Amino acid sequence: MKAYSELNQYMAGISDILNTMNILNWDARTQMPTGGNVTRGFQLATLSGLAQEKLVADQLKTLLEKAEVETASLPEDGIERRNLKALREASELFRRTPERLTRDLAGLRAEAQHCWGQARAKNDFAMFAPLLERMVGLQRELAEVIGYTEHPYDALVGIYEPDMTHTKLQNLFRQLKAKCLPLLERIRAAEPPREEFLGREFPLGQQRAFGLEVAQAFGYDLERGRLDTSLHPFEISFTRDDVRITTRYQPNFLTMSLFGTLHETGHALYEQGVAPELSRTALTSDLPGMYAVGGASFGTHESQSRLWENLVGRSKIFWRHWYPRLVETFKTQLEDVDAETFHRAVNRVSPSLIRVEADEITYNLHIMLRVELEAALIDGSLSVSDLPAAWNAKMQQYLSLTPPDDARGVLQDIHWSAGYFGSFPTYTIGNVMASQFFAAARAQVPNLEASLEAGDYAPLRGWLTEHIYRHGRRFRPQELLQRATGHGLDAQPYLEYLETKFTGLYQLEG
Ligand code: ZN
Predict the structure, then answer these.
(1) How far does residue 413's CA lie from ligand 1's centre (Å)?
(2) Gap from CA of 263 to ligand 1 centroid (Å)
């Protein structure tokens, strides 16, 4: 296996570049003064160019061919052959992508994000529209380069979620709407829970300490991680041995920092749980996206943040264990609130205009709206000029709300200006997968419920590591699901979870 090990050395160099880019990105979002913005952009572009050069080099092509011969008798789904497959696919994609398209996309991304920020501040969609139109044009070109059989959106969604298609998403959304829309109706007619205490003043230092205590209890290893603050919370890794998370704090918004920390901890557990032998290989790198990441797909990654945040962190048994500790930490703020009341408050359902503030029921409706609109932009059935009106019509249809302005409507997310067409579905796919994984863990791990109730997360984390985390990007998401749960993507466990949880919380008649 001479060529294979030489190839691994070569790939390790590419991985080092991608991980260094992650460090620069982490720094830009947590430490860097705003003045560093422009030169940081140059630094990242230089490194990304270096990595791409290495991926299209003839040296790699030759090594790949030799290594493929060497490994031909090994199992198709083993680490070696999957590693080579990831390298070959990325190398071929970069070879057939016109340099002009890569350059135009990078340039437009920077310009469009800047313009979007201003347009949102001025609440002026018309100002952003010409750039969005150019972005849709480039995304269509990109879809042609990547290739698809049915719908151009399939190519774009596949960047984030391999094998997902427009048709599969439509089927999934149909099932979710059939459950969520009537459930939302019933919740709206019910008595809302008490929640005013969530707006009390919670000292920031204690918010941080409590969040970190839970993160560590989940298994987040601070020898290989750290928690910082940033404007938008995120998780980022520079191999499994350095996996960082951020959150944000507001004195009167305990739930934002708390659940934000639990969410990012879920992402971090995935990265820290990748098998050491996959470090610096193609199986811990999203090569087409030029990003060092260990998870199988965006949706799979999101399934872990949502599993730890929602299925664990917003459950009754979680608070049965942690609420006394929370009251000890915030004695004056919570002295008149019991665990049951707190649990209902952090699970309240309240339709809002803003996606990032949405609850578990309405969140998916925000996603469906965006996916339906972006797919229509890509196939040409919706024009950019008609987008604000189409947005508002769907908001009315799904959430019975009308945005008072475009800043709180069509201009609220950065994704389209950044060229991330096709990434929105992964949030909902993450919700669906999370319930599938959790149901499988429940069925396979003896006394899982009792250990969770006792605040012992090792059995759950052990199952997730064994079936998901350690594999990195070795399996495609559907394959990983099938191996871990016995099914492909299946909405049923998620629909049952929503029904049981919210009919209980709101005491709805069955
Ligand atoms: Zn996330």
Answers:
(1) 15
(2) 6
How do strand 243-247 and strand 235-237 relate by DSSP bridges?
antiparallel
Structure tokens at 485: 């749960």
Tokens at 483, concatenated? 């191996």
Q: What is the 3-state secondary structure (H, E, C) of 448-490?
A: HHHHHHCCCCHHHHHHHHHHCHHHCCCCCHHHHHHHHHCCCCC
- Does residue 264 have an active-site annotation? yes
Q: How far does residue 460's CA lie from ligand 1's centre (Å)?
A: 19
Q: Give the DSSP letter string of 258-307.
A: HHHHHHHHHHHHHHHTS-GGGTTSGGGEETTTTEE--SS-HHHHHHHHHI
Which pLDDT belongs to residue 390? 98
Least confident of 4-18, 32-46, 159-173, 332-346: 32-46
* Number of CB atoms found within 10 A of residue 205's CB: 9
CA distances from 403 to 368, 410, 414, 422 (A): 17, 9, 17, 24
CA of residue 264 to ligand 1 center, whole Å: 6
Beta bridge partner(s), residue 351:
none
Q: Rounded to whole angstroms, how far apart are CA atoms 92 and 464?
A: 33
Residue scoring higher pLDDT (479 or 41): 479
Closest CA to 225 of 274, 265, 281: 265
Query: Residue 143: its pLDDT value, please?
Result: 98
Is pLDDT above 70 for 510?
no
> Coil, helix or strand for 250?
coil
Cβ pair 349, 498 in contact under 8 A: no
pTM equals 0.96
Structure tokens at 171: 């089927």
Task: Please identify which of the residues 161, 264, 309, 372 carries the catalytic annotation.
Answer: 264
**Average pLDDT taken over every residue of the chain:** 96
Give the three-state DSSP class for 245.
Answer: strand
The answer to whether 228 and 27 are in contact (CB under 8 A) is no
DSSP per-residue string spanning 175-224: HHHHHHHHHHHHHHHSPPPP-GGGGS---HHHHHHHHHHHHHHHT--GGG
Count of other CB atoms within 10 angstroms of residue 390? 17
In this predicted model, what pLDDT tens digit does every residue of 122-152 receive, in sequence order? 999 999 999 999 999 999 999 999 999 999 9
pLDDT digits (tens, 9 = 90+) for 244-261: 999 999 999 899 999 999
What number of H helices and E strands is found in the chain? 21, 5
